[in-house]
Write a structure and sequence with these properties.
This is Sporulation integral membrane protein YlbJ. The chain is an all-alpha fold and 396 residues long. Helix content is 82%, strand content 0%. About 2% of the residues have low confidence.
Length: 396
């Protein structure tokens, strides 16, 4: 009976989507173009290098090397093997859903147990600085100082999520015993891992490119799909209806009712929600809280991407979803605490230690984001062309 109910829900949802696409062709087209623009100009060119490099690092045994070195840190802090350090750093640098992709990859390589993978994916799927500072803070708010606050909040709260999730299935016996710092052992592990991979250098490079682009194509599909879905919910007034319930929740925290619809948009798709929050007339603190919660929750669009990646393994999605709720709670609290000491102090003086170190990084990220906006589509098109050549070569 339960499966029949699922069948009815899935079929009804598909029919509803198809009907709405026919009923609102112009709105759907604009939403699709908006999603495609974000993916082709920013997401694809910014994530592709990280995905390819990560595949090469795994193939050449560098991840095994990192795993041995990070074991004394990652095991006590997060109750995961040292290879989790690779996923954590790469996830922060490249952004979601990189953490899920790298975790799934290491699980397939049997470098993580099922429980360790579920712990790891819960706190390594973060937004990257390029998106937080470049797209959100500079692109939407036109305020790079807010980006520093959002970035500190996002990564600090994610760290606390990792600390909390270390207790997930805590009684389960660990496969790995705690290892001591040893560079010689790390090099030995690197060498054995490289020898174990029998692929030639050309094969490794080709596989790295094709696997990375295939993942990015899936990501692009989800971004466009949820951009369209969000627009449809607005057109049929469902979004406005749901936002009525959100208004009640926001009133408990004395947040204006006008923020309900932007927050709902952010629950579905981060970019749209953050842009709408920035367009409201509320105070900067209220906007910072909501954007931090949206970034922490990841949005259903990113969560669907993560679920798609994890579906290729035995990693459960539920711990990741619970961690997003926890991340949102921590982010809302931390951004409120840091608002005055970080954001207000940066506004009043540029002589503080934070401003002195952060300003060059912010300028660099702004230039990088502008470069992606100008050259991103060319990079995407070139990569897809190379992907087709490799694919045709493999088939022949």
């Amino acid at each position: 009976m339960k499966q029949k109910l699922y069948s009815i829900i899935y079929a009804s949802s598909s029919v509803f989507m198809a009907t709405m696409i026919i009923a609102f062709p112009q709105e759907v087209l604009k939403a699709s173009q908006r999603g495609l623009d974000v993916w082709a100009n920013v997401v694809f060119p910014s994530l592709l290098p990280f995905f390819i490099i990560a595949e090469l690092l795994i193939a050449f045994g560098v991840v095994h090397f990192i795993g041995v070195l990070f074991e004394p840190v990652m095991r006590p802090l997060f109750n995961v093997p040292g290879v989790g350090g690779f996923v954590w750093t790469m996830g922060m640098a490249s952004g979601y859903p990189s953490g899920a992709k790298f975790t799934a990859r290491l699980r397939q390589e049997n470098q993580l147990s099922k429980t360790e993978a579920e712990r790891l994916v819960s706190f390594t799927n973060a937004s990257n600085p390029l998106f937080i500072i470049g797209a959100v803070s500079i692109g939407f708010f036109h305020d790079h100082q807010l980006g520093i606050l959002l970035a500190i909040t996002h990564y600090t709260s994610n760290f606390f999520v990792g600390i909390c999730m270390r207790f997930y299935k805590y009684r389960e016996q660990n496969r790995y015993s705690l290892q001591h710092f040893s560079i010689s052992k790390a090099f030995t592990q690197l060498h054995h891992a490289r020898i174990k991979d029998k692929r030639t250098l050309g094969k490794v490079l080709g596989d790295s490119v094709t696997h990375s682009i295939q993942t990015l194509l899936i990501i692009g599909g989800f971004i466009i799909l949820f951009s369209v879905l969000t627009e449809i919910l607005r057109e049929v007034q469902i979004a406005q209806f749901i936002s009525g319930g959100i208004i009640i929740i926001l009133s408990w925290f004395q947040i204006p009712a006008e923020m309900a619809l932007p927050l709902l948009s952010g629950i579905f798709e981060i970019t749209i929600g953050a842009n709408e929050v920035a367009s409201t007339d509320s105070s900067i603190l209220i906007k910072a809280i909501l954007v931090s919660v949206i970034l922490a929750f990841n949005g259903f669009s990113v969560q669907a991407q993560v679920a798609s990646i994890l579906a290729e393994t035995d990693i459960q999605f539920t711990p990741y979803f619970f961690a997003r709720l926890l991340h949102g709670l921590f982010a809302g609290i931390i951004v409120t605490i840091l608002y005055v000491p970080v954001y207000k102090n940066l506004q009043t003086t540029n002589e503080t230690v934070i401003a002195a170190f952060a300003q060059p990084s912010v300028d660099h990220i702004q230039q990088l984001y502008l470069m992606f906006e100008q050259m991103g589509f060319i990079i995407t098109l070139s990569a897809l062309f190379i992907y087709l050549i490799i694919l045709m070569k493999h088939k022949n």
